[in-house]
């Protein structure tokens, strides 16, 4: 059997972590078996579906590199097909027209609730034409079996059984002629030859209805797997409050897709105690049997930990391709300064996100005329001037500009002045970077370049001189 899965988001909001994890599991399952993966946009809810949401879904799938073999299909483009099937069902009796008014259904509902019964359609039009008004004022209902039960073996949860008595006759076409959601899903899964439906657990109650319709159509019933919910770290439903944001916001915050995918795959699936999975390992090892039935809690710290890991373990040249976007956001012109792959190596160790790297790298590329005021007050003071003058001279006399040569020049300065590295290190760092935190001084100075470093040390000395004259406003 050729495995075929699908991801079928409704474009009523941005793709969030729950949806992305469902997409990932569906995609991995297809890739594991060298099957096919379909992207289908379930946009039948015309009031709530939006184009920006469709765009965000596609952008997110692209950014996560979850490629699809077919689609994107749009349900709104398939209404003719759905209606043709409904007409067939009306002809063969697996569906029927229902003329019950909204008012009648509302009264029925209230009565059932008052009797402590589960509200359901009572089947008045099922076998009777007595209430026929005209074809324009009817809905079409599926003739659900009245006896027996529907059973399916959920590939994550095991056997699940629903009694047909719990399921009433579902409306499959509204009064305005539009097919309803559950029906479209069934026809799509059938037409697209989906073999495995992997989706959120909020759809479990739709499954028996969908199976009944498939059976009435004589269609094969796919296997189902319902993935559990993702909760916040406080055990409550994941919401904006927990940072449950759209996937593209993770890109904006400086996450690598590899980190998010690794995080999501582990959120509800495990393979021994392994934490790090590259995409090939995921494809090779993923199985639905190892997906957890219980809800998982989203943990931002772990995601950050993974992001830091991937920034430092993926090839720097690759990480640089993602970093470039953030550098652009910061408006930094990187033509004169270290290459982005070098920057990844310089700052990767101390930054957990690409955004942090982009925010803290400016001094490698741009000169500055102001120092971080807190650190300049502390480190660019009169006492630091001799150290800066000497280190300037020693650096200026270097014939080659390498980290090792810079290191030696700094060391010679400490020896010449008989002071510890603390007395020179911080003033020099603040002088050449403007801030108090940077990678090791020798590689930082090397990456900034000789002429820039020397000019910045002079700028710092001028600042100290100004301060000494009682004017701390300018550097
Ligand atoms: N469109 C549904 C959703 O976004 C998914 C339906 C399905 O996978 O069957 O929740």
TrEMBL record:
MF-aspect GO terms: ATP binding; glutamate-tRNA ligase activity; tRNA binding; zinc ion binding
Annotated compartments: Cytoplasm
Motif ('HIGH' region): 9-19
One Gene Ontology cellular component annotation held by this UniProt entry: cytosol
Domain Aminoacyl-tRNA synthetase class I anticodon-binding, chain residue ranges per copy: 327-460
Subunit structure: Monomer.
Protein name per its UniProtKB record: Glutamate--tRNA ligase
Lineage, highest ranks first: Bacteria, Pseudomonadati, Pseudomonadota, Gammaproteobacteria, Enterobacterales
Gene: gltX
């Amino acid at each position: 059997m050729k495995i075929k899965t699908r991801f079928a988001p409704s474009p009523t909001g941005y793709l969030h972590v729950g949806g992305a994890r469902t997409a990932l599991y569906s995609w991995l399952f297809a890739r594991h078996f060298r099957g096919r993966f379909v992207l289908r946009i379930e946009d039948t809810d015309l009031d709530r579906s939006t184009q920006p949401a469709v765009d965000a879904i596609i952008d997110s799938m692209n950014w996560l590199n979850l490629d699809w073999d077919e689609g994107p299909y749009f349900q709104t483009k398939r209404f003719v097909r759905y209606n043709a099937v409904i007409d067939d069902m009306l002809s063969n009796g697996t569906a029927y027209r229902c003329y019950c008014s909204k008012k009648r259904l509302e009264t029925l509902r209230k009565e059932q609730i008052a009797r402590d019964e589960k509200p359901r359609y009572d089947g008045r039009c099922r076998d009777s034409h007595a209430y026929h008004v005209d074809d324009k004022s009817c809905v079409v209902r599926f003739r659900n079996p009245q006896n027996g039960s529907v059973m399916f073996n959920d590939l994550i949860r095991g056997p699940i059984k629903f009694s047909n008595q719990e399921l009433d006759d579902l409306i499959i076409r509204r009064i305005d002629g539009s097919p309803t959601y559950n029906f479209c899903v069934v026809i799509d899964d059938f037409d697209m030859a989906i073999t495995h439906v992997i989706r959120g657990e909020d759809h479990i109650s739709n499954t028996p209805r969908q199976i009944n319709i498939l059976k009435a159509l004589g269609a094969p019933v796919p296997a189902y797997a319902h993935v559990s919910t993702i909760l916040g770290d406080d055990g409550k439903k994941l919401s904006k409050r927990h940072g449950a944001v759209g996937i593209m916001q993770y890109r904006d915050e400086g996450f690598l897709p590899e980190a998010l995918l690794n995080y999501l795959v582990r959120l509800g699936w495990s393979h021994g105690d392994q934490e790090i999975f590259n995409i090939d390992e995921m494809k090779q090892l993923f199985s639905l049997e190892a997906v957890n039935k219980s809800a998982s809690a989203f943990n931002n710290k772990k995601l950050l930990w993974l992001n830091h890991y991937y920034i430092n373990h993926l090839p720097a040249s690759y990480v640089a391709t993602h970093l470039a976007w953030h550098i652009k956001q910061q408006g930094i012109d990187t033509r004169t300064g270290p290459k982005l792959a070098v920057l990844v190596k310089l700052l990767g160790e101390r930054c957990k996100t690409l955004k942090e790297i982009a925010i803290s790298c400016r001094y490698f590329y741009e000169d500055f005329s102001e120092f971080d005021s807190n650190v300049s007050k502390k480190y660019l003071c009169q006492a630091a001037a001799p150290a800066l003058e000497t280190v300037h001279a020693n650096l200026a006399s270097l014939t080659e500009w390498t980290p090792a040569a810079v290191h030696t020049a700094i060391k010679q300065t400490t020896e010449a002045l008989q002071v510890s590295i603390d007395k020179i290190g911080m003033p020099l760092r603040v002088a050449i970077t403007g801030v108090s935190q940077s990678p090791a001084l020798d590689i930082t100075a090397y990456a900034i370049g000789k002429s820039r470093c020397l000019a910045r040390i002079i700028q710092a000395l001028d600042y100290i001189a100004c301060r000494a004259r009682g004017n701390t406003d300018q550097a």
